[in-house]
Design a protein that fits this description.
7-stranded mixed sheet, alpha/beta, tRNA processing, single chain, 256 residues, tRNA_(Gua-N-7)_MeTrfase_Trmb, EC 2.1.1.33, Rossmann fold, tRNA (guanine(46)-N7)-methyltransferase activity, tRNA (guanine-N(7)-)-methyltransferase
Length: 256
């Protein structure tokens, strides 16, 4: 998730009438779109893309039913998202992505597979979670292969940070799960440390190991399959919200 121009950090010595925007974990870049993606955007957006609004989303009205809801953050080109939604028709999925080519690609898959249990919000996930997702409403959250921001000076841009995880916990139902995956070991280690330190979460696997076997519902991507053939590692982390967890409200749209 990526911008042509990175935001400039504010000078903390200068007074401002408005709090500074939080550091973004993505940069927007232009991407090429095929004719199929363009057509899907034109034809299917009115039904399957939910406009961002700073107000709680009525999920039951959006899907026309009551069902467990899972949010995926940063679905890329949407292949795994569509496959999971197709395999789990009794649940509803909301994919959050900022990049238009990815939105078009997933809409194309929705049309080809006839998926009715999948919607898209094209906006910053931090603001979507803050304003559109009701606390305690989600059965699960997927964060698969977020940008690892390899350079040490950019590590602060990584999505999985303590404040963001606290917000995710507040949006999960008691017993709801958070599933993260990465193919970058230093990020996997950071994820494990951050998730383990969150008091509202409990690891679903042996704490001595920390990382979980890949759940059957997460399909292998072509990129991942190639990496495995080359001996590259992939780390899955699956945590659940404690039944008695009480998370403090955290406004992630502003810095302190």
């Amino acid at each position: 998730m990526n911008t042509d121009q990175e935001p400039t950090a504010p000078d903390p010595t200068e007074a401002s009438p408005h709090p500074a925007r939080a550091i973004r974990s993505f940069v927007l870049r232009a991407g090429r779109m095929g004719t199929g993606q363009q057509k899907a955007l034109a034809d299917l957006s009115p039904r399957f893309v939910v406009p961002y609004r700073p107000e709680s989303l009525d999920v039951a009205q959006t899907f026309g039913r009551q069902a467990d809801t899972i949010v995926e953050i940063g679905f890329g080109m949407g292949g795994a998202t569509a496959e999971i939604a197709a395999a789990r028709p009794g649940e509803d999925f909301i994919g959050i992505e900022v990049h238009t080519p990815g939105v078009g690609a997933l809409l194309k898959l929705i049309g080809e597979r006839g998926l009715s249990n999948l919607r898209i919000v094209q906006h910053d996930a931090v603001e979507v979670l803050e304003h559109m997702v009701t606390p305690g409403s989600l059965a699960g959250v997927h964060v698969f292969f977020p940008d690892p921001w390899h350079k040490k000076k950019h590590n602060k841009r990584r999505l999985i940070q303590s404040g963001f995880v606290a917000k995710l916990v507040s949006r999960l139902k008691p017993g709801g799960y958070l599933h993260c995956a990465t193919d970058w070991q230093p990020y996997a280690e950071q994820m494990l440390a951050v998730l383990s330190a969150e008091p509202g979460l409990v690891n679903t696997t042996d704490e001595a190991v920390g990382y979980a076997p890949r759940p059957d519902y997460r399909p292998l991507t072509k990129f991942e399959q190639r990496g495995i053939r080359l001996g590259h590692g992939v780390w899955d982390l699956v945590f659940r919200r404690r039944e008695d967890a009480v998370s403090a409200a955290v406004d992630l749209t502003r810095t302190s």
